[in-house]
Design goal:
Porin, about 60% strand, two-stranded antiparallel ribbon, about 260 residues, mainly beta
Amino acid sequence: MRQVASVVVMAVILAAPTEVSAQGGPGFFFKRPVVSLGIRVGYSAPRTGGDLFAFTLDEFIPSGADTLSSLKFGSPYVGGELAIHPWERWDVAVGFGWTRSRSMSEYRRWVDPGADPADPADDLPIEQETTFQVVTGTLGAKYYLQERGRRVGSLAWVPQKLTPFVGAGIGVASYEFVQAGDFIDTNTFEVLGDYLKSSGEGFLAYASAGADLVLWRNAIVTAEARYSLSNAGVDGEYVGFGDVDLAGLQLMVGMGFQF
């Protein structure tokens, strides 16, 4: 009787998938998925704390902007995640992320006097290219606030269409801050070309919240907001500055597949 009932349940699922989908997510599995793989894109808004950012925001503005403007270090975010589902509501996830802002900048208070220092018309902006890049690697856990699916009979597992989650984890953040272009020597007031760089790594911790939307069986769309805390030391031409604040908010959306 159990075998007959299982066959009947499977026949109903195959013959009427829309009814199953109406009660849960679209499609079904023969067993609960145990792993998922996805990519993420979005926007990263760094907190820009610490001496290095304070100095940069005070000295430089975007090229062509007025003196009240300030450089912005927000940038696109690209990342990925591999998650293992050992339990119905828990995931163990390994992820990576990459952000990079790039902007043309110039001194806020200084100009190049040109060939004739007495002629204000010769005053030219002293320009540089400012880039800020961060790469992260994380290990974390996600907890789903409701069951991600349900078993129908003994042969099918139907995913829930929408499942919210919260998460937290730790990892490593590596940054690179570069300014390349013209700079003024405040002792001689001479304008010289230079390449200034600082890089480093630091411990990272994060918390997140989001939701998975099942489009069709294996395919999932994920939306997530994540806030990270991290800092790292400076080197190169910026020795003597305090640690760089790498904290910030990431807003992400992505596509993934579960198996």
